[in-house]
Amino acid sequence: VQLQASGGGLVQAGGSLRLSCAASGRTESGYTMGWFRQAPGKEREFVASSRWTSGMTYYADSVKGRFTISRDNAKNTVFLQMNSLKPEDTAVYSCAAGPQTNFIYWGQGTLVTVSS
Q1: Distance between CA atoms of 20 and 24, rounded to whole angstroms?
Q2: Is the C-alpha dihedral spanning 113, 75, 48, 4 positive or negative?
């Protein structure tokens, strides 16, 4: 499975960005797709995830109410709509996929920079 993330960039605080992650290759219909981020000098952290079949979604407390994960099953693509961005959201965002919460496939990251 190959994952290609895109959509990062520079945005002012309070602004919005939409990240995309396209999956190709031998994708499994039951896989969970997720977003993670890693800020400079910090550990990678979970942001959001979506079960491919059930549509159940999960969010980190820090992004609840501001970020929304969604997907286009026909295109094997998952999105992360990020609203009300804060400087502390600045990080490299990566998408991942795998069974349940076992994220075994990772895409390259896309940089999101939020200026104050």
Answers
A1: 13
A2: negative
> CA-CA distance, 65 to 71, in Å (whole number)?
18
Q: What is the pLDDT of residue 29?
A: 66
- Bridging pattern class, strands 17-24 and 2-6: antiparallel
Distance from C-alpha of 24 to C-alpha of 75, rounded to nearest angstrom: 9
Residue whose C-alpha is closest to residue 72's, from 55, 88, 89? 55
Mean pLDDT for the stretch of residues 5-30: 90
Specify which residues 79 forms β-bridges with: 20, 70
For 26, counting Cβ atoms within 10 Å of its Cβ (0-12 exposed, 13-18 middle, 19+ buried), the class is exposed
